[in-house]
Amino acid sequence: MEKPRWWLLLLPSIVLLNLVGLCKAIESPQYAVVHAEPDFEVRLYVNSTWMSAPVNELSFEKATLFGFHRLFQYIQGANLNYSRIAVTVPVVTSIVPGAGPFRSSAYVVRFYLPAKLQADPPVPLDELHLKPYAWNSHCVAVRKFSGYAKDENIAEEAKRLADSLSRSPWANLSSTESNYSYSIAQYDSPFQFIGRTNEVWADIKVSGADGCNSSGIASY
Ligand SMILES: *[C@@H]1O[C@H](CO)[C@@H](O)[C@H](O)[C@H]1NC(C)=O
Ligand SMILES: *[C@@H]1O[C@H](CO)[C@@H](O)[C@H](O)[C@H]1NC(C)=O
Ligand SMILES: *[C@@H]1O[C@H](CO)[C@@H](O)[C@H](O)[C@H]1NC(C)=O
Ligand SMILES: *[C@@H]1O[C@H](CO)[C@@H](O)[C@H](O)[C@H]1NC(C)=O
Ligand SMILES: *[C@@H]1O[C@H](CO)[C@@H](O)[C@H](O)[C@H]1NC(C)=O
């Protein structure tokens, strides 16, 4: 049986997203690439404020849909300022395997706030159950993948990243367990069929102040 196309529910939103995309550059969080390899890179992101939507769902795709839907209402004006907020990319879904109901994964979907709202974001309406999230300066390992991010492929992509990291100088700074926490960053609307970009992100545990340089890896 054909799987339900969840994103059809978002059709009006997505058409709008595409229109917005044509009109002006879309903002993204800033980062510096501190190390690049063919199959992954290490980025240092500066501190930033995001709006986050925790979601109780068993599936990554549904969690992303429902979380994004709440965030989309927020940026469409469902906030105490009645402000419309520009779309940004990526939309990031963080996944903690085993931390959800019935040992499923726990999901949080996050939206990066435009630079001018970083310091004082409009307060979301209560019923959206959103919370601002201060993402401190942090270091992530990133693996890109194309096509659609789906329940069927994200764990495999996360495992490939963990395998690459286990052979790298970051082996001892990142979790290489098969069920570690990771995030999926999505940059495209579902109607972009080719040239799609997604990323799997794994945290690397060094403090932001050190950049992504730890004593062990400074020589690389
Ligand atoms: C990030 O850190 C800088 C310097 O510490 C600070 O001025 C700025 O307000 C911070 N930004 C956010 C969004 O927390
Ligand atoms: C939202 O409203 C509050 C209180 O009226 C105000 O202080 C704040 O600057 C507003 N924020 C934006 C982004 O307009
Ligand atoms: C990671 O730590 C283990 C034990 O502490 C050590 O044997 C190993 O060489 C380290 N690996 C790297 C890549 O630094
Ligand atoms: C990963 O899963 C295994 C088996 O399900 C479990 O024993 C282990 O505690 C999990 N590790 C983490 C970090 O959650
Ligand atoms: C990391 O260390 C190298 C050499 O020690 C230095 O050139 C670079 O600026 C550092 N990067 C960051 C992000 O701190």
Automatic annotation (TrEMBL):
The keyword Amino-acid biosynthesis does not apply. Keywords: Signal. It comes from Populus trichocarpa. Belongs to the HEBP family. Residues 1-25 form the signal peptide. Pfam families: SOUL (PF04832). This is SOUL heme-binding family protein. Transmembrane segments: none annotated. InterPro entries: Reg_factor_effector_dom_sf (IPR011256), SOUL_heme-bd (IPR006917).
